[in-house]
Design goal:
By secondary structure, chain A is of the alpha/beta class. Chain A is about 25% helix and about 20% strand. Chain A has a seven-stranded mixed beta sheet. A seven-stranded mixed beta sheet of chain A has the order 36-35-37-38-41-40-39. In chain A, strands 6-5-4-7-8-33 form a six-stranded mixed beta sheet, sandwiched between helices. Chain B has two domains: about 5-30 and about 85-285, 3-Layer(aba) Sandwich (Rossmann fold), CATH 3.40.50; about 35-80, no CATH class. Chain B is elongated and about 95 Å long. The chains are: A alpha/beta, B alpha/beta.
């Protein structure tokens, strides 16, 4: 408070008038309340001794004096940290840590330097800037040229943090050449380095040092450990930090998964990022949400994601449609993994993570040895049984079990048994958790002898039939696995390959594989894309050199070897800042320096308005008391209280518009998950912009709703992302939602998991769907009016494509046949949010997923706004035929190419 | 008067009591047909006596059934039956139109309700009801019969302030409603005149609860409704006991005044239901049957 000053100090003289006011107020009593009273004559007959005017009560007097004093002081304008006219003396030396650890709050640091310079120096005073990190061209830190403070202030704006650590040793050397006698401001990044003592000594030469401290600690992502279905993530910091969100992003910036990292008082936070196999291959980097720094981005290379699969089968018919041994494997794996074929030696040489052998004995000893080496080195060998294996039970020792000769036929003409079904997967199985369809039947299989195969202890039965005979057996071998399906890979022996379980089992197997790691080599890899100081990928700087992948773990990033992606595109390796940095430790404050916080140097705080507001509030209170004294009605009092207090009540934080009926808004249900809500909001914003650009509808900004409290009747369409842990709303909320649907509203429920159906999300959806009174549903087809309302659509993709969308069966008459609910799993909002911002203007993207997704969104909005207006479009061909306007077989209004043309003028 | 009493409400209130037959030793000197037998021959419905036919009597009055039993002709004579007159008056000024809270009726409203209810009872009993008025303009407004009650209500709603100047017929029963918080000079004179008629009856004092309890506190500027009289009192709560004593004294004086004139005083508070007071009025007027 030592910096307290007044804008108009002479006004304080009015305080001297307060005693006068005191006497005036004391002599003027409050006016009495007026009361009609017929018994007044009786009262008058009494001897009244109480007719002298009353004094103002002392507390009212105090209150009014306080109001007057507050008003006088408030008008005098007390200000803390009033901007001072800078004293001109001295020259300035700014020592600024601009390494990676300063990046996350770089604007604050620059602002602090600005404030310090502006506060303590005249604009024309000489100043020098020393940045302690090496420059991108590899030069060690050098003191900048001497310049005027105003020029330095201008230069501060273009400074950027570097994506590598600071070099305090070189900085200490550079300090020796700095002009002595300068006043020093040191802005530390808070990390200790081995060269700190020398740096301190160099700084101690200057007598007058201010050190800025109190910044939030930098966070550094350490390399991940990859597990079969998860990534183990670690973040370190010099001091315990606030919890952060970690996002796993694909190469195009889509968020594939997110998790929360909590420090819990320690200097590191760890978490597991669970990723289904299908999404893991799209993973490009991990990023700490909301932080811009090279340390908060972890690039992932192909070692963490590439799993090429080799397929091998005998005979030329292996790839035949429906009958070939490899047909179902290809169908199940295509799209999510890279498939390779050819001969075994060629595939091993090319590098595969998994190998599927469909009833293929390995005869050649050399090939067998190579295969065994490959498995021991981390490969997963998956074999399928078949006539060959049944004929020769132990063709080689690359089987997890010993087989009994021959096969077991469960469905033959001479057999009494019936085809066997699958038992639920045991908990130790990698398939545990997959739902077993009850129509899978096994007709023939090879049988395993009890006990382990020679040389492969640790046999596990991953899947068994209901009678207990194993169907999938596995055994570890070195770092790899041997897996045997006791049936064929086609539908000859069982209908397992026909079921949806089969791809899911194969994906689990793919996830089991350690993946294909490009071996570390001593060959230098050229930097291709490097991280800049803000954690964005950019072209490498002039000093960047090649680096051998073998040296990744021991090299500290610097101008010559910045963190980034190295090597050619198909063999890219990621070099990360966190790989070789020593443990982070906080830097001790400089001895003899004046410590200052980042914010203490800034921003005057004016108290005047607050004092005036307090005076007004007290005045209102005084009015209230006076009314009370005069006996005015309770209603008047409560009205006054309401008038005084209402503006002060905290408004709901949500952006519910004050008058939602004045414009049409899309709405979404707030789930409570901040990232999901943010995605939904930006998705709906993008859709609103798209609708505004393409159609005659005018949508205002989207609105987040709590269906339990907010009035939903203003919103034609409510988007509801269903989270796996979404609770079922309470009865009142359900009733409100039912009411909303019954009165023409449309709920769009999205489980956002079409790629990897999450049983928990399905359960949540089922629970919510059961609670709501939903009509009977059917899958959305092109015959439904929803696909005609604006565009003629044949696909309705979101972030995922091909998920089934459910709408009400149109027999319902009570709502004009408009479906009150639309149910899907394609994460439309995610795709809308990710669509390019100028998608609406750029009509060229017809056919792209973002464009089609937004078009579906337009149709949804039009469906919500116009109902069944376009329903007659469905009958146009038939009507035309009956009118004889078009010959039979006229082209349908649905163009043959996937949805392109607008269906007509916008409604 | 701001609030005209509703004859329907009054009729409903009176409906819970039997018709009022005013006990009258001496019926007011009216010629109106009524239910009070005058113990002599006259117009009426009840048989009084047979009397021998005297030449000159109208032959139509010969009671042939009685005459057939003897050789003489007899005339049938009925008793002279007259109605008692109930004279009513209600104070109508701004002080009566006052109430201390919105939930209470005004004093005038309650007094009017009682008055009309009483009138309805008397009318149902076949008596004649008359509203005393400030002047004699309404002196002929003695009413009886079915349409009497609305006429009474209208007259009541248009009554002016001030004590009545017109007097009822002798031996009428008189009921006066008012708050009687002013000086008692006017009522003293009026009661003197009435007792000289002679007429008997009741004085009903209708009071608001606030006039009884004086529930105010602090510094209050009191205003007399409808009069340019006001007074500011510093601490009303200090005067409360003295005021209540003064009110009791006023009531004692009024009661003594009434007793002198052969009247009775009833006190009614507007926060109490009207029925008990109406019952008391009914009992007092019907007397020892």
């Amino acid at each position: 408070m030592s910096d307290l000053s007044f804008a108009a100090p002479w006004l304080l003289g009015a305080l001297a008038l307060l005693p006068v006011l005191f006497f005036l107020l004391r002599l003027t009593p409050p006016s009495p309340r007026r009361q009609e009273f017929p018994g007044l004559r009786l009262l008058l007959a009494l001897k009244s001794s109480e007719t002298t005017p009353a004094r103002t009560p002392w507390w009212l007097l105090l209150l009014r004096l306080a109001v007057a004093a507050l008003a006088i002081i408030g008008l005098a304008g007390p200000i803390r940290n009033a901007p001072r006219v800078a004293a001109g003396g001295g020259q300035a030396l700014v020592v600024l840590d601009n390494g990676w650890a300063a990046a996350h709050d770089w604007p604050r640091r620059v602002q602090a330097v600005r404030d310090w310079l502006a506060r303590d120096f005249a604009p024309s005073a000489p100043a020098t800037l020393l940045l302690t990190a090496p420059t991108p061209d590899g030069a060690p830190p050098q003191p900048g040229p001497r310049m005027r403070v105003r020029d330095l202030l201008a230069r501060l704006g273009v400074l950027a943090p570097m994506p590598w650590p600071v070099d305090r040793k070189a900085a200490a050397t550079a300090l020796a050449t700095a002009p002595a006698g300068a006043r020093v401001l040191y802005v530390s990044d808070g990390l200790a380095t081995p060269a700190d003592p020398a740096f301190r000594a160099a700084l101690a030469r200057f007598g007058n040092i201010t050190e800025l401290a109190g910044a939030s600690p930098p966070l550094l992502l350490r390399p991940v450990r990859a597990g079969p279905d998860r990534l183990h993530v670690r973040v370190s910091a010099p001091a315990p930090a606030a919890p952060v969100m970690l996002r796993a992003e694909s190469g195009t910036g889509q968020v594939l998964a997110a998790t929360r990292l909590v420090f819990a008082g320690r200097r590191a936070a760890e978490a597991d990022l669970v990723l289904p196999a299908a999404t893991r291959n799209r993973l490009a980097l991990l990023r700490i949400a909301g932080r811009q720094s090279a340390g908060s981005v972890l690039l992932l290379d192909e070692g963490a994601r590439r799993r090429p699969v080799g397929l091998l089968a005998q005979g030329s018919g292996a790839n035949e449609r429906l009958t070939g041994q490899l047909f179902y494997l290809r169908a199940a794996l295509a799209g999510s993994t890279q498939l390779r074929g050819g001969t075994l030696p060629a595939m091993l040489k090319q590098g595969v993570a998994l190998l599927f052998l469909a009833d293929e004995p390995i005869g050649d000893p050399a090939e067998r040895a190579a295969l065994m080496r490959w498995v021991r080195g981390g490969g997963v060998l998956v074999r399928f049984a078949g006539p060959n294996l049944a004929a020769e039970p132990m063709p080689d020792d690359l089987l997890p079990v010993r087989l009994v000769g021959g096969d077991r036929t469960l469905d033959g003409a001479m057999s009494w048994t019936r085809p066997a079904a699958l038992a639920p997967f045991p908990p130790h199985s990698i398939f545990a958790g997959l739902a077993v369809p009850n129509d899978v039947r096994v007709r023939r299989q090879v049988l395993a002898e009890p006990g382990d195969a020679p040389g492969h202890p640790g046999r596990q039965d991953w899947a068994t039939l209901t009678d207990g005979t194993p169907l999938v057996t596995a055994a570890p071998m070195g770092a790899g696995w041997l897996v045997l399906f006791h049936v064929t890979a086609n539908a000859d022996w069982s209908n397992l390959p026909l079921s949806g379980l089969f791809p899911a089992m194969l994906h689990r197997l793919v996830a089991l594989s350690a993946g294909l790691r490009v071996p570390n080599s001593r060959l230098a890899l050229a930097p291709r894309l490097v991280l800049d100081g803000m954690g964005q990928l950019a072209a490498p700087g002039p000093a960047a050199r090649g680096l051998a992948s073998a040296a990744f773990a021991s090299t500290v990033a610097g101008p010559t070897h910045p963190a980034g992606l190295y090597g050619p595109p198909d063999e890219t390796r990621a070099f990360n800042l966190g790989a070789a940095l020593p443990p982070l430790a906080p830097m001790a404050p400089l001895a003899g320096a004046r410590l200052a916080g980042f914010d203490l140097t800034s921003h005057p705080v004016a108290y005047g308005p607050w004092l005036l507001a307090a005076a007004l509030a007290l005045l209102a209170f005084d009015l209230l008391l006076s009314l009370r004294l005069r006996g005015l009605r309770l209603a008047a009092i409560s009205l006054t209280v309401g008038l005084v207090l209402l503006p002060g009540l905290p408004a709901r934080a949500q952006a519910i518009p004050a008058m939602p009926s004045l414009a049409t808004h899309l709405a979404y249900v707030i789930t409570g998950d901040a990232s999901v809500d943010a995605t939904t909001l930006s998705g709906l914003k993008a859709l609103s912009a798209f609708v505004n650009a393409r159609t005659a509808a005018t949508l205002s900004s989207p609105v987040g709703l709590d269906p339990g409290h907010d009035d939903m009747s203003f919103y034609p369409l409510i988007y509801w992302p269903i989270l796996p842990d979404a609770p079922v709303p309470d009865g009142a909320t359900i009733a409100r939602l039912d009411d909303y649907m019954q009165n023409g509203g449309i709920l769009l429920l999205d489980t956002r998991d079409a790629d990897a159906p999450d049983p928990a999300a399905d359960d949540a959806l089922r629970a919510i769907g059961t609670a709501l009174s939903l009509p009977a549903l059917m899958p959305l087809t092109t015959a439904h009016v929803l696909t005609h309302t604006f565009y003629l659509l044949r696909r309705w993709p979101g972030r995922f494509a091909g998920g089934t969308v459910w709408v009400a069966r149109d027999a319902e008459r009570d709502n004009d046949g408009v479906s009150p609910v639309i149910l899907g799993a394609d994460d439309w909002a995610g795709e809308w949010a990710a669509a390019p911002a100028d998608e609406a203007e750029n009509n060229q993207g017809a056919g792209s997923q973002a464009e089609m997704s937004l078009r579906f969104g337009v149709n949804l909005v039009m469906y919500a706004l116009t109902g069944n207006y376009k329903a007659d479009q469905v009958h146009v061909p038939e009507l035309l035929r009956r009118l004889g306007e078009a010959p039979p077989g006229a082209p349908s209004p649905i163009p043959p190419q996937p949805g392109a043309e607008p269906a007509g003028p916008p409604p | 008067m701001s609030e005209a009493p509703d004859p329907l409400a009054a009729g409903a209130l009176g409906g819970s009591l039997p018709p009022l037959l005013i006990a009258a030793e001496r019926v007011a000197a009216t010629v109106a047909q009524g239910v009070h037998g005058r113990r002599r021959v006259g117009t009426g419905e009840n048989f009084w006596q047979f009397r021998p036919f005297v030449t000159g009597d109208p032959t139509a009055r010969i009671d042939w059934r009685r005459s057939g039993r003897s050789d003489q002709l007899f005339l049938r004579e009925t008793e002279w039956e007259a109605a008692q007159t109930l004279a009513l008056w209600c104070q109508a000024d701004a002080a009566m139109a006052w109430r201390s809270a919105d939930t209470l009726p005004t004093k005038a409203g309650r007094a009017g309700l009682l008055l009309l209810a009483l009138a309805s009872l008397a009318l149902r009993g076949g008596e004649r009801v008359r509203l005393l008025d400030r002047d004699n303009a309404n002196a002929a407004g003695i009413t009886a019969g079915g349409g009497a009650l609305p006429r009474l209500a209208t007259a009541l709603a248009h009554a002016g302030p001030g004590l009545p100047q017109a007097l009822p017929p002798a031996f009428a029963q008189v009921v006066l409603f008012g708050d009687w918080l002013d000086d008692l000079g006017g009522i003293t004179t009026l009661l003197g005149k009435l007792s000289a008629l002679p007429a008997r009856g009741l004085v009903v004092q209708v009071l608001d609860p606030a006039e009884v309890a004086l529930p105010y506190a602090g510094r209050v500027r009191f205003v007399l409704p409808g009069a340019p009289l006001e007074a500011t009192i510093g601490r009303v709560e200090a005067l409360r006991d003295a005021y209540q004593a003064r009110l009791a004294e006023q009531q004692n004086r009024l009661s003594a005044l009434c007793a002198n004139a052969g009247f009775r005083l009833l006190v009614h508070h507007t926060d109490a239901p009207a029925t008990p007071t109406l019952l008391a009025l009914h009992e007092a007027l019907s007397g020892p049957a």
